[in-house]
Amino acid sequence: MERSERGYTLVEILVALAMLAIVAGLAIPSFLAYTQRSKLDAAVRQIVEDVREARSKAVLRGWEYRIYGFNSGSSSVYKNKYRLMGRSSTAVAWPADSAVSFESATAMVSEWVNIGTVYPGVRCNPTDGTDHFWVAFNNRGVAYDIDDSFKPLNVTHPTGGTKSVSITTAGSIRIQ
Question: Which of 54, 130, 156, 157 has the greatest number of C-beta atoms within 10 Å?
């Protein structure tokens, strides 16, 4: 019995490599765009979850809670960051922006969430042009203090697009 031990020719190998390069050249830009959009979507989900957490805690604890942050163009040392703050009543002042995280019988402050570090390239930009943004919920879950920055808050990625987060007085969240 005769065995054929034919290998691949140089031309066949070069054609296969050329086809692989074409497929990779088409797939890589699509994959990169997908990852940029994924970062943007994940950042928006994070912000929405934190806003929902503030509203939920306000109802469950009977306190007032707010999300407070600074946009990516802010001159503040906290630019492109936000945090959750709480107070037991309107008689208690909101904690200072610069407060370290704590929880007491009358107030609380969480750690800063740095959107640009957690989701590289993503930025928060209020549409009203201010350097900060916030929304506060009372003990019934009503957004009683919505800064114009959340009408809406734009979350952007240079190559992934822009999504807008807005909050109604009733506390529902809209993503556009």
Answer: 54
Tokens linked to 19: 């086809």
Closest CA to 146 of 88, 67, 89: 67
Q: For residue 80, give the CATH number of its domain.
A: 3.55.40.10
What is the C-alpha separation between 18 and 165, in angstroms, rounded? 45
Q: What is the DSSP letter of 133?
A: E
Q: Do residues 130 and 49 touch, judged by C-beta distance below 8 A?
A: no
Q: How far is CA 135 from CA 25, 128, 146, in A?
A: 45, 14, 4
Mean pLDDT, to the nearest integer, of 86-93? 95
What predicted TM-score, i.e. pTM, was given to this entire model?
0.82
Give the SS3 label for residue 75: coil
Contact partners, residue 2, CB within 8 Å, separation at least 6? none
Buried b / exposed e over 76-112, threshold 16 CB at 10 Å, is eebbbbbbbbbbbeeeeebbebeeeeeeeeebbbbeb
Specify whether the CB–CB gap between 115 and 82 falls below 8 A: yes
Whether 83 maps to a domain, the answer reads yes
In a domain, 140, yes or no: yes
The stretch 79-86 carries a mean pLDDT of 95
Whether residue 41 lies inside any domain: the answer is yes
The domain containing residue 71 runs over which residues?
10-175
| Per-residue model confidence as pLDDT tens digits over 2-22 | 555 678 899 989 999 999 988
